[in-house]
Amino acid sequence: MIGKYNGHYSYDKPFIMTNAPDEIGIYYLGLLNGDGSLGVLYVGRAKGEDVSIKSRLLNHLNNNEWPDVTHFGFCICDSEGEATAHEVSETKRLNYPKYNQRAG
Asked: Would you call the peptide bond into 8 cis, given omega within 30 degrees of 0 as the criterion?
């Protein structure tokens, strides 16, 4: 079962360490809109087997991939298959966020 959305948290190491789980699921990276909602720039997946929501967020942060990202949120999933399906669904629902778009 897909868990409820948790967020929005500041996209920095202390907030990731405190709030992001060592679980399978999907995560959202973006910036806050004027109304307080998250303007999603990327939807990612943590598939399990030593790859958690927390580890993926820390990886992106350490690589400084997207300097315009200010906040994150996440949903915990029960399995890798569920996380994969939810990532695909959310990416489509959000009209392929900026950093989910592929060249070509």
From this structure: yes
Domain ranges of the chain: 6-96
Residue 64: phi, psi to the nearest 5? Answer: 45, 45
Tokens standing for residue 49: 């087997």
Q: pLDDT, tens digit, for every residue of 13-71?
A: 999 999 999 999 999 999 999 999 999 999 999 998 899 999 999 999 999 889 999 99
Longest dimension (CA), the chain: 38
Domain 6-96: state its class.
Answer: alpha beta
Residue owning tokens 């990202």: 69
The CA distance from 21 to 74, in Å, is: 9
- Bridge-based pairing of strands 38-46 and 71-76 is unpaired
Angle 12-91-50 (CA atoms, 0-180°, nearest 5)? 55
